[in-house]
Structure formats: C-alpha cells, structure tokens
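question for whoever is on the cluster today: can someone run the full assembly for these? two chains, 996 residues total. i dont have access anymore since they changed the login thing
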Amino acid sequence: MGRPSADVLQGTLDLLILKALSLEPMHGWGVSQRIGQISRDVLQVNQGSLYPALHRLEERGWIASDWGTSDNNRRAKYYSLTATGRKQLAEETADWERFVLAVQRVLRTV
Amino acid sequence: MRPPTFWLRRGLLRLRALLDRPAAERELDDEIRFHIEREAEERVRRGASPGDARRDALRAFGGVERHKDDCRDARGVRPLEELAQDLKYGVRALRKNPGFTTVVVLTLALGVGANTAVFSVVNGVLLRPLPYREPEQIVTLWQHNRTSGETRDDVSPANFLDWRERVRSYDGVAMIEPYGLDLLGPDGPESIRTWLVSDGFFSILGTPPQLGRPFRPEEFTAGHDHVVVMSDGMWRRRFGADPGIIGRTITLDQVPWTVIGVMPPEFKFPAGRELWAPRVFTEDDVRQRGPAYFNVIARLKPGLAPGAAQAELSGVAAQLAREYPRTNAHVGATVVPLPEQLLGRVRKALLVLLGAVGFVLLIACANVANLSLARAVQREREFAIRAALGAGRGRVVRQLAAESVLVAALGGAAGVLLAYWGVKGIRAFSPANLPRMDELHLDARVLGFALAASLATALVFGLAPALYAARPNLHEGLRAGTRGATSGLARQALRGALAVGEIALAMVLLVGAGLLARSFASLLQVDRGYRSDHVLAVTVHVWQFAETPAARAGYVRDAVERLAALPGVRAAGMTSSLPLAEAIGAVRAPLTIEGRPAPAPDAVPIAHTTAVTPGYFAALGIALRRGRMLARSDDASAPPVALINETMARRFWPDEDPIGKKIVVPIHYAGKPVSREIVGVVADVRHAGLAEEPRPSVFLAHAQAPTGAITFAVRTAGDPLLALARVRETIRAPMPALPVSSATTLDTLLADSLRERRFHLLLLGTFSLLALALAGVGVYGIMSHATSERTREIGVRMALGARGADVLSLVMRQGGRLALVGVAAGLAGAAALTGLLRGMLYNVTPLDAVTFAGVAALVLVTAALACYVPARRATRVDPLRALRAE
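^ ran it for u. tokens below:
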C-alpha cells in the first residue's frame, strides 16, 4: 500500500478481470496480482471487492470456475474465460478504447 | 444467442447455490482463506514477519463478511432464499396450529378432490382427442325423416349406395351395420357382436390395425368376403393375444373365416362390438330404399367445412326425392361431425357437473378464507411486530402467501388421493352411454388441473388475510392488538359476504339436485304399462336354423308352449321387440287404414309394429282395455288380426271404436301386405324408456307374421335368473347349435335405462349435500368468530341488564339476516341456472316451486342451526370476565 491508487470503477474492474483471465485460467489472488503487475501498481484493486465481481461475472456466464491445485500445491479456485466472456471482452475493450479516445480528444482540444 | 451450455451452467450454479447452501458457503470460505494465506505468504517472502503478514493481508482484503455477503448477492439467489425462509416459517406456523391446518387441508382436499375427479371424467370423455386420424374431418351421415321429424335416422341401403356415388366432398363414405356371427365356444355357440362395414371404413377412420391389415377392395365381393378384423379385447380373451392369429381360420356361423387384422386396444368404433366383417351388396340392397338400418360415416376432403358437405348432401337427397318420390319424398340428409355425434349428448351434462363441483370448491375457498381471516386477526400483533422490526409490507404479504400455497399444496395432494377414489366411484356408477369411461385415468393434464385448482384456491382464500395484513396503519395493529380488536367494519362486511355467498352457492346446487330427484321420483311412478319384476328375456338368432316363415312360426309356437310348461314359470311369450332392449325387431312402418281416403304425405299414420305370441301380454303383465287378446287360433290359416295400443286407438280413431276396423301394415317379414282386423286394444307401454311417451303401436300374431327377431319373455315365480339354465335348454332343445345372443332380466334393462339419470342425480346430489355441509360449517365458523369478537359488547349489554334470551336473539338476528340474503341470492341464482338442466328433467319445470321452497326451508334450517350454537355460547358470556379481559 502507500502508493497512489486509482479508485477502480466497477465496470472497469470487470474489464480488467476479463483481460487478466484472457491469457490463462487464474485464481482470485492471481488476478489481483496480475492487475497490479500489468498496471505497474497504478491500478490497486481492493482485494476483497474482487470476489463479488468474480462471482457476478461467473453468474453472467462470462467466466467459469473450477477447483485446481495452485503453484504452492494447495487447492484453489481457478477462473477461466468462457466463449461468451471472450466476446464480451472484445466488445468492452472496443468500447473502452472509443471512450478513451473521446476523452483524449476533449482534453487536447479544450 | 447464448449457447445451451451457458444456460445449463448457470442453472446448475444457481441450483447448487440454493440446494447445497452449506457447500456453497464452504467453497466461499475456502476461496477467501486461500487468498489471504497466499497474500500473507507473499508478504513473508518479501520479508515481513508471519504475524504482520497475516494482519496486513487481512487489511488489504477488507471486510471479509461484507465481501462474502456481496458474493452471495452476486449469485442472485437472495429471493429464492427468502422464499425458502418463508416456507420454513410457514411450516412452523402451520404445525403450531394443527387444528386450523387439519380443517383447512381437509376442506380443500374435498373441494380439489371432487373437482379433480369430475375433471378427469371431462378430460377422458370430452377433451382427449378421439383416437382417429384428424377426427374433426370425420362426419356421420343420416337420413332426415321429415315425416317423423327425426333428423338423425338410419340410412337405407339404396340411398347409401346413391349417396356414395354422387357426392364429391368426401374422401370416402362407408356404412356400418350391426350383425351377429356365431362362434362355437366352450359353452356352445355364442353370438359374437359384429359390425359389417363397407369398403373404406378403416381408411376413413385412419387407424391402422396393430397386427395384419385392413380389408382390401376385392374382399367386398361375394366369395372373397369371409375375412374378419378382430378387436384387441377379443384377441386377448379368446386367443391369448397370439401374434400368429393373422392368417388363421376360425369358424363363424359354421363356415371358415380368415383373420386378417387385429385393431389396437383404443380402437372401439363403433363401440361395443368385437368383430368387423365386409358387407357385400346384393341386388336386393340396390332396390331397398324404404327400410333404413345403415349407419354411415365419411371423411371430409381436407379444408372442406361441414356446412359445404351438408349443402352437397342435401342436394343429392333432393335429387333422390325427385327420382324416387314414393320412398324418398320426405327424406332429407343430415351431416353431423363425429365428435358431436359421439359426445354431444354427454357434453352438456358433464359441463353442468363440472360447474356444480366448481361451486363446491368456491364454498370450500370461502370457508378457508374465513378461517384464514380469523387467524390473521389473531396474528395482528405478530405482523405489527414483524413490520416494526423492519419487514417490508411486501415481505409480510409474501409470508402469508407462502402459508396459503403450503396449505393449498397439502390440500391439493390430499385432493388428488380423494380424486383417485372418486374416479373409481364415478366409473362404477357411470351410464353405458358415457363413452370412453374405461379409459379414465389421472394423467398429466388432470394432475395439472389439480395443481391449478389448488393454486387458484390459495390465491382466492389467501387474498383476504393478505390484504388485511397489508393495511397501511401498522401501529394501530400494535395498539389494537392488546385490546381485543374492536374495529373491523370492513372485516365484518367481508365475513357477511362470504356467508351469503356460501349459502347462495349451496342453494343453487341443492335446487339442481332437488329438480333431478323430483324428476327421478316422478319417472319411477309413471305408469309404464308393464311389470318389470320376475321377467327373464332371452334373445336368439334363429334365421339360419329356421329359414322359412313356417319353420320360424313352428319353432316359436313349440318353444313358447314348452317354456310355459316349465315348473316355476307363470307365463311365457315371444316378442320381436322387448321394451327397453336394443330394438332390432322394432319396425316403424307407415300403415293404411282401410275405408279412409289416402292421407296427405305428411299425415301418413306411422306405428311401431311388433310380432308377438299370445303369452307375451301375460308375461309382461300388459292389460287388455277392449276387445280380446291374441289367441293360439290366430295362426297362418286364420284371418289376419292385430292388436293396437290405447295411444293408437285415441290418435287414429278419436271418436270411433277401433275394434273391427281393418288396417294394412307393410312389414317385410310378414310377406305380402294383407288387411288385418283389429280385435283388441291393450294398455300403453313406454317402450323406449320411462321418459318416452307411448307411441302408436300395432301387435301382430307371430304365427301370422313370423319374424326371425325373437326374444322370449318368461315370467317366473321366483328369481328369474335361477330359471335361466332351464329356459336356455328348452329354447335350444330342437336345435342344440342355436346361439343365444343375450339373456337378462327386464329389471336389469329397466335399471340400465335409468342409469344415466341415476348417475347425474347421484353426482349432483353428492355435490349439493357436500356444499350444504361445507356452507353449514362455514356459517358456523363465521358466526363463531363474529360472536367472539363481540364478547366485550355482549358483556356490556349483560352488565346493563340484557338477559340470555336477548343475547340469543341478538346473535340469531345477525345470522338470520345473512341467511335470508343468502337464500334470496341463491333463489335468484338457481332461477337463472336451472334452465341448463332442462334436458335432464322429467315432469318438473326448471322453476318448480316445490323444489325451490323445500330447498329454501332446508337451507334456512341449516343456517339457523349453524347460528344457534355460537348464539348459545354467547348467552353464557360472563360479563365480569368479558369486561376484565380488556
């Protein structure tokens, strides 16, 4: 902690989770680490709030879960992207890019 | 589109979350514990002490319980969990009050059970499609006899052949004719009831045989026609369901026939017979246009409406009327869809019964609504407290709804059990003309109906207390609850309406049942013209054993004489047509009265003509009114004579003495039409049934009109069935191979003829008494609650000097007002509805004053009794205690 952290909006959190899982199945802790790593700890996800999001995404059918064995040889719940989730990721990524582009344009112009 | 696996996974997830809550919780725990431990490990790896690492990991995670709760919410099972809670709480609440639960469940079980039983009859008889291909395209064709007014008269052979040739609207027209083929069985020859059918019969119905094949066109020509198709029943009973039956030869009428097909079990068309055989047309058939005895079915071309087919057939009938005016001048044609022909008559009666039983369910609902309301009042404080603790109004209503659904489900389940027995009872009493009764069972649709009825019930009776609990002013509930609710004008009005409704509904049913009962009683008292007790009736098929008229006359004369000589036999006779029996020998013929000008075509006298032996009138106890009876001396060598009945005498000789007048009766079996002298007038007999007015009838001496349609009627001193073996033996003595096609008693035939009325009376009677009992209990309950709520008021009155009698009259007046309003509503309802029973009544109008008055009195007495008990209880209120209870 102690670093500046962005307050991640819920919709964005979903997008980040989907993106993190797009490479390989992962458990919840892994997802939180991955998001921290990739964003170089700029995006600090409140670890606990990751889980309701994971459960919500599973409920929507975008990700699926399965119990597996972790790298330190313990039982862990692994999440993976479903076909629907992959499509959703593509859509949300496109949306996000349009949004960012629009905001950038506004910021440069004004 | 989402793939099916998506919904599957999601459904499983939700199901598991709901059903296996502990496991789901455990997994959530495991998942979060793993996260925190992994995070702590990571921090240790980076150099933190184990204690610090764990603390920091927990802090980084945030509130564990809050996140868990969010996870549960994310799963979307919250509403279902609440429902589970409601149900659990409902079970507890119902178990805490076993008296209430038992009464309510039993009441609902009676209502739902009776409805389900009747619905299963409606379902089996009316709703299930007929087991033929596109049954709505199948029609029956009839002659419309404009002389007698009969619109569905049988069709004559020549007319059938012409119709079949000339119509274009049909994919096939076929005839059906009842027949008997004699099979040699272990007990001697037995007449197997057979249908003769013409080419196309099976393809019109569209049902293939389960074994073998239907008839081929060439099998309808003489010499190739000894082939039969068998019913499933006969195949199983007589041939042990032998699959090798196809192609086998069986002996019928002493000649070999080949079995070519076995129909499936559900194929029973027309009903009641076991064999189908080809009908070969002869030269005689082509000429025979007068006597009509074919039933005709046809299949409409696809997309053709019955109306168009009717128009075409009417046109053909009009052509025939022009071409053959002597026989066809007054013959039209009628097209009736097969479902209407088979079920039209029973539909109305069944729907009336379904409506009646629906009334019973409504009364049951009213009772339960009142009980639930009373309970809701008692629980006022509970609701108020729950609301005060934060339960939303919706939640309280949902809680009550869950209880209602629970009770209704229990009642519904018990109702299905009752229905199972009810259906058995209904089947045992059902009349023979209620088709398809043997196929009744509780199928998915019936169970669905029971479920729907139960849920509808829950909605109806659950509504009152739920609305009551959802009143906006909750704190009043808290306050009033402690003081023994005094408010509740609306509640009283609701209760009053329930009582009035119950009384009115029960009234309507009782009036209906009363009308049926009065009809039945008056039918039994009607003068039927003969005595049905101690009469044995045995029908034989004699055609092939006694082919000449003389042989038949001789056989009958000897048989009757030997029967009369048997010990225990009082009288014996023979008739070609026995009252109430299937009248194959009954001929309705136009007759000529000698010495009168030829009547207008539509005023030709028609009489029911029967050939009998002299002993017939003694055997049936038919009285002589004028002239003389037939005698042994009225034989073939004597001048032809006839007896007529009183109706015929009155109608055709209103102002004269018919004795000595001469008539000509054209009867095909009597040879050339001859003039016959009327020698006597006998009493009217209600031939076709007790409700049928006597028709003009002529009786000929069998010796002078030797028909082969022979039924022996034997009056015995003791039980007629005990004499059966001897009678059978005597009849067969001259020709041991003679088949007996039916043997029964006249009492049995009479009981069978009343079966349909008895069935309706029994069912409607049962339902109306059930309704009266439920309404009585309901009024009692309503008055009890109303009175107990007035305990304080009554206490005050008594403290101020009111005596027991005053209190009694106070309560009785309150109940009496409700009963009177209920009876008035019931009378109005009954007057509006009993018209539906019109076809089922005899000698009673739908507005029969005696029935209406009697039922009103019965209901008022019942209501008075139901009010008296709570009223008596009210007189024993102790004023001190009532006031202190505040």
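summary bc i know u wont read the tokens: The longest strand of chain A covers residues 63-69. Chain A touches chain B at residues 1, 27-29, 32-33, 46-49, 51-53, 55-56, 58-59, 61, 64, 70, 72, 74-77, 82-84 (CB under 8 Å).
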